[in-house]
């Protein structure tokens, strides 16, 4: 993709817009448009948070067909999002046959569906009339049903569909279980299941789960994108924290396979290798970023690698076939827990690559001297012992917070320049464990403050209060930039550049107008001409950066913040297009919108 270059990117203009019509719908939860479309054989395929799958003309933006799965908009799903669809082609089907090419979609209400890519009609031979109910057959059933969702597109490898799940955090210790399952792409028949909480005493990870209830916990699910390597017959599964996130007295030990990258053999579901990025997670440090399968040069050799960017602000580079680190990983001592019944891991893995974001906060910041003094006063009341400070009843400063470091936007890679491009967050959070008898009082005192949330954590002695580190009047206490775009040079093992990503434009925070770098959620793409495109910020811009230097070359205002990853393709008219989804229902700082926006060079400027 070299038609759009650093020299002409400033000439990009909007060529079409497509609205889904969902931003104004009344819902039981906050909907967020996070879809990255696919373009295949002259058709664009996308999906929406409320269960529509749509085919568009990628040059004009005109709709070709739409299929509505009838998701109840009043359902209270915690993550009311869908990040895209997958495609599968049946090499046994006759040309032009129905369902020879299928759109494989995970609907938010945990239905796995197959549609004819030409017409949108259900592939009736798949599952029951075209769908499989993923809530059936789980070790721990969802309760309520909205506890269990499907938010990311399934992985396709050969004639198999590999699918994870999204499980609501911090409700109960026996939350819905996070089995990864594989289905036949033609029939929807279940082929194998892998449970990240080991159930077989002969499994070498079994003894890393300690306690009478340890093997009955839920979560540890793969809610992000599963990566597939057909050449090696492997799928790479990014797993999350076991339930509940912030207290683990019922699941002592390292909790192996949770908070890991797990390589499974696609034919059988057998474990090839696993690498744990966080032991005994107490911080909601899910592996949110999709594993990036790349080829890197290391010590004169060309190596198949998997890049893992983590909420802990680290980048791990692993050999794709063995899981061995390509840059050393050290087990370093970290603080102990002072919570009765809890035992934090004495060490955590640290990549020897430079951190992608700060790992500690010594002094509070503020946009004014008064705000800074208030922030510093609050900081001095908190437990703040550096990386992996455990949650506490006193209140603990956590940096990076539960949104990272790196997040589900993941890693973009430029193989020519050897650069991994990672959007990062740098905002600190405060985690307070509330004795059960004090939960109601905390809700009454803190429940209406900006950036504060509570969770019951049923089955534990504590409830949870999680809040962004802000002053009482909403001023930011974490030093800017709050968000940054970072390039790691995987040849030298050094940071090539780091630039603020986004601004505080339009945010309801004290001093926001002066902030550079802001909380971001969404991914980047790189192109062969040396461009990096990313939205991701609440100020609502799509930006283009010079991949070599990190210099911002262009930006264009979108109808809302874009929590999605852009994509690029050539249209039948010979033009290179860049498309991004922007919007949500206005329930947070990213704003209200429901549009896919396409950019291209003017016809007269097209090379």
Radius of gyration: 23 Å
Secondary structure category: mainly beta
Query: Order of strands across the widest beta sheet?
Result: 1-41-40-39
Number of helices: 2
Helix content estimate = under 10%
Distance between the first and last residues' Cα: 12 Å
Q: Give the rounded overall mean pLDDT.
A: 95
Number of strands: 41
Question: Which percent band covers the strand fraction?
Answer: 25-35%
Q: Mind describing the biggest β-sheet?
A: 4 strands, antiparallel
Given the C-alpha coordinates, what overall shape results? Answer: globular
Give unreliable regions as ranges: none
Topology readout:
Blueprint (H helix, E strand, L loop, with lengths): L12 E7 L11 E3 L4 E3 L2 E5 L4 E5 L6 E6 L11 E3 L3 E4 L11 E7 L3 E6 L14 E3 L14 E2 L5 E3 L2 E4 L2 E2 L12 E5 L5 E5 L32 E3 L4 E5 L21 E6 L5 E6 L15 E7 L2 E9 L5 E5 L9 E5 L13 E5 L17 H11 L16 E3 L13 E3 L4 E7 L3 E7 L3 H8 L5 E4 L6 E7 L14 E7 L4 E7 L23 E3 L4 E4 L6 E6 L5 E6 L9 E4 L5 E10 L6 E9 L7
Parallel strand pairs: 2-7
Antiparallel strand pairs: 1-41, 3-4, 4-5, 5-6, 8-9, 9-10, 10-11, 12-15, 13-14, 14-16, 16-17, 18-19, 19-20, 20-21, 22-23, 23-24, 25-26, 27-30, 28-29, 29-33, 30-32, 31-32, 33-34, 35-36, 36-37, 37-38, 39-40, 40-41
Task: Describe the overall structure.
With 607 residues, this protein is mainly beta. It is built from two helices and 41 strands. The mean pLDDT is 95.
Keywords:
single chain, 607 residues, 4-stranded antiparallel β-sheet, 2 helices, 41 strands, 3% helix, globular
